[in-house]
Design brief:
Layout: H1 2-23, H2 26-45, H3 53-76, H4 81-101
Helix pairs in contact: 1-2, 1-3, 2-3, 2-4, 3-4
Length: about 110
């Protein structure tokens, strides 16, 4: 499983380079690498979710869907917004659950 998290960014980077050589669209290349950077960052930061197992598995599936969304963008030049925002939403749900679950912290306001 871990090799997929190493292999997937390399596949996306190679595929985006090949598509850049084919059509010469620098804007698409920059957007692809920014999306790839964001998904890799969310995959690394998502390891803090291991305490909530089901949410962690959901986050991993969302990361895989985001990689698929990036590949779809590279090939078809269309965004799949749900796939790209899914890891961000699982992270937001986790942060909300942590915020609500910390009763020992003083309330804001």
């Amino acid at each position: 499983m871990k090799f997929l998290f190493v292999l997937a960014p390399l596949i996306v980077a190679g595929l985006s380079y090949v598509m850049f050589r084919e059509d010469g669209n620098i804007k698409k290349l920059i957007i692809t690498f920014l999306l790839l950077w964001a998904v890799i960052t969310l995959a690394i930061v998502g390891n803090i979710m291991r305490s909530i197992g089901l949410l962690f598995v959901t986050h991993i599936m969302a990361i895989v869907a985001a990689y698929g969304g990036i590949i779809y963008y590279v090939l078809k030049n269309r965004f799949i917004w749900l796939a790209l925002f899914a890891p961000l939403m699982t992270m937001a749900i986790y942060l909300f659950l942590v915020w609500v679950g910390n009763e020992h912290l003083p309330t804001v306001g």
